[in-house]
Amino acid sequence: MSFWTTLSSSTQDNDGKGSAKVYPTLNPNQKRFLQDEIRYREKLNVLSKDGGSLSEVYVRAVEEDDDAELLDKHDSFYWATKQLLNLFQYMGVMPIFRNPPVKGLPRTGYSFTSKWFIWAVLIYTLETIIVVNVLKERVSNFISQEIKRFDEGIYNVIFISLLFTHFLLPVAAWRHGSQVAIFKNMWTSYQLKFFKVTGTPINFPNLYAIAWGLCVFSWGLSIAINLSQYFLQPDFKLWYTFAYYHIIAMLNCFWSLWYINCTAFGTASRSLAKFLEETLEGEKPAQKLTQYRHLWVDLSHMMQQLGRAYSNMYGLYCLMIFFTTIVATYGSFSEIIDRGATYKEVGLFVIVFYCMGLLYIICNEAHHASRSVGLDFQTKLLNVNLTAVDNATQKEVEMFLIAIAKNPPIMNLDGYANINRELITTNVSFMATYLVVLLQFKITEQRGLRLQQQE
Predict the structure, then answer these.
(1) pLDDT for 378-412, tens place per residue?
(2) Distance of alpha carbon 200 from alpha carbon 74, whole angstroms
(3) What SS3 string covers 28-90?
(4) Most exposed: 62, 170, 245, 445, by fewest CB within 10 Å?
(5) Taking phi first (over 0 means left), then psi (-120 to 50 degrees means alpha), and beta for anything else, what does residue 342 get?
């Protein structure tokens, strides 16, 4: 059914030139759809007058399978971060693998029958044996009457909760292995597309050194944290550390992976924005703008795929940070109220600052990546002087802005939460609410004990 209404012959123009068109009464949604259709027709008419090929300019051309060796040659992101991928493989956290260079076969794969998945199951089984034994002793110590100090009980709660993250690994990581492989393949294909359109590969300066440094830092920090607990806590035995090395290193590696991906998104966005500015300064840049729009949409889709691929892992990561921060903060304040400040309370505050620091870095990096891909491009396009460019370029700038509005570059954990700076303030407000309630109970309990002593 058409939205156009044709006037009768009695209402034709005085010049006798055909019938005129008027708009019917439309609701807001119908009017917006009609306006989009009008823009679409005008764009096609402009492009056809300019002699452009509509199938190549407006509609994205059908992509063919690229040569595997060519994909490897321009996959600088993989070669810069390969060591972190290998670390995840050796740790059994994410058993994805690199396929042989065969045409038509994705460069990154995931299979339950691969040697890396079998290796992951083996490592997980050995770790489970150690974790179960440590968990038994931890629970036994927690329910025994030997623990008299409240802060010691808090330490037990925190380290027991860390042990449970080990049992969530198959659900949080392995279950979404195919989505992670899709994300890696999207990066591989995007870099070759970028090279074909711009003639220049994407360079990731210092990313190789950063990835190596984060690999060493993740395990070094894990060893330092565990050994410090061994020396500071009398009930923390040396063999307990073997259950926590892998867990804390895994959490640190998740943070490292997020940092690297957000950094890569920012680098790719700035490279694309540079070519966009150079193209807008040239004459009749409409066709190039169309190709850049396709590249931008792919970049935005990759950011969305990042959230889908790692949704369970980072969702549980944020919950663990939230729980640990509340317990450690309440435990430290409660013990200070009861017995005064000691070195053990300092240790609890260190755990709080460590967890909140990780949450801040994750949210802040996601904010910068989303801003670089979204707002910065919108600003550059809105600053274009449309009166100084041809009609095709004007329409393409409009289409680019519509694409940004329809495909917002948001780091979303598969619908559970958006990763941005707002998540920090939301978590802090929730934690403050819970802490105020818990401390009210604690203060009330203290008042009751003082009244009993006075009687």
Answers:
(1) 888 888 887 777 888 888 888 888 888 888 888 88
(2) 10
(3) HHHHHHHHHHHHHHHHHHHHHHCCCCHHHHCCCCCCCCCCHHHHHHHCHHHHHHHHHHHHHHH
(4) 62
(5) beta
